[in-house]
Every structure is written in structure tokens, then in C-alpha cells.
Amino acid sequence: MTTKLFQSYDSTLFQGAISYYLQYRPRYPNALYDLISQEFQLDGQGKLLDLGCGIGLVAIALHDRFQSVLGIDPDTEMLEVAKQEAKLAHASNITWVRDLAENISPAIGTFSLVTIGRAFHWMDQELVLQRSYDLLDRTSNANRGIAIIQTEKDIWSNDSVWAQNVLATIKRWLGEERRVGSSSVPLLYKSDLEVLDRSPFVRIKRHKIDFQKHWTIDNFIGYLYSTAYCRRDYFNGDTSVFEAEIKAAILSAEPSGQFVEDVPISVYFGFKD
């Protein structure tokens, strides 16, 4: 296979959003990590490769179930936060590398497991799956494979009244299409990962974990500013009017100002025989 070096990355994707990302983004539940451990018989041995690692949520949560972890992400600011979070968690066995997932090659070694979280939708999926498969070792009888974690529901696909009110407000301010840094997309998430069926991985499995996020208005506004579609800098100055409209949109459906969002998590597993 000819190696193609990928260099395109929109460095503005989460510009100015990282502090909000760290404080307001929902964390994955422990049930997710227990499920991954069970499927791949994790026992503290082997190496983990976490692609699109962001601020290190998955890499740090799983670090004590491997001898070593390599987290790769193209965003410098994300990686700096990941390093800080790893230090706070005493996760000293993680190495962080700034690069695109598409650029992985045998030069970085072989691994027991590859994980990819929400960042998978930004990637050249077929290429990343092939290259991930090629880096999985066969040094033991333990399961080797990939775990892809998807939260396939967000404000753009939530039919709750409060969510539709919020989305209508965002569209009035920022346009009908979903912003993604310097461009836009009509739809980001897919309800199923058919690309896995076309990959070299076998015994494809999908598990669903029901997860709920409890919000206050202030926390939800902070979350919006953590996203690529509603970054604070898009508003070019004072956001007080926008925030007041978001508050009114939520209160019209949830008068208490406290509400629950269903965020089902789909976990896709593929194995290397």
C-alpha cells in the first residue's frame, strides 16, 4: 500500500473553544470503559493507540489497563490540555503526538487496541481503519481490534422541544447549516458505521449504552461554546443577547431551567483474527 501523507486540518476547528471543552463537555460513563475491557480482555498489558484523542478523555480513562498508551491528535491546544489532565490523573504512561490519524504507519509500532471517539467523523474513515488494522499485533491470544465510540445524537438531531427551540435560535444567529470551523456541513453524524463492514475487521459488533446528561442553562451554554458549530468567537463580540435568547428558548420548554438530555452512546467493535 502506498503511503499518502495527509496534511489538511482546519486548525480553526475548535479555536477558542478548548477551555469550554474541558469544563463543559460530557464525559463518557465508566460503563463504556468496562465494556471495552471485557470485549478485549484488557489486563494491564499491551499498548493502546487512541486516535483523535483530543483532551485525552479515552486515553486517560484506559491508561491503567495497558502498559503504555499513545494519543494522537492534530490540535496543539487539545494536546496541551491532554498533557495537563494526564498529569493530574498520574497517568505517566501516555505519550502524546501531534499528527493526523491518517498518517499512522508502522513507524509508531504495533498495538493491542485502537480507540477512536467522536473525532472519527472528521477522518478519512476507510484509510484510518485500514492503517489501524495493519498496526494491530498478534503477540498473544488476547483479542486485538478497534473500538469506535459514537454519540450519534446532539442538538442537531434531538427532537425534544427545548432542543428544537435552541437549534432555531442558533440558526437565526449563525445560519441554517452546521458550522465546522471555517466551513459548514449539512449533517455530521451517521446513525450506523457501514464503513466498518467494508474494512478488514471481522466480527463487527455494536453495543448501545444509554446515557443521560443533566443540564442547567449556564452549563449548556458553556457546552455550546465548546462545539465547532457554536464557538463563542462566531458572534464577533458581546454574546449577552444570544445567551439571553438561548435561556428564553430553554425556559419556554423547561421552566425550571434544569433539564435532561438523552445521549445514547454506540460502541462499535471490530476484531483482527
From TrEMBL:
Pfam families: Methyltransf_25
GO MF annotations in UniProt: demethylmenaquinone methyltransferase activity
Ranges of residues in domain Methyltransferase: 49-136
Record's keyword annotation contains Transferase: yes
Enzyme's top EC category: transferase
EC numbers on record: 2.1.1.163
A biological process from GO: methylation
Gene3D superfamilies for the chain: Vaccinia Virus protein VP39 (3.40.50.150)
InterPro entries linked: Diverse_substrate_MTase (IPR051052), Methyltransf_25 (IPR041698), SAM-dependent_MTases_sf (IPR029063)
Sorted UniProt keywords: Methyltransferase, Transferase, Ubiquinone
Keyword Ribosomal protein: no
Descriptive protein name: Ubiquinone/menaquinone biosynthesis C-methyltransferase UbiE
Organism field: Microcoleus asticus IPMA8
Gene for this chain: ubiE_4
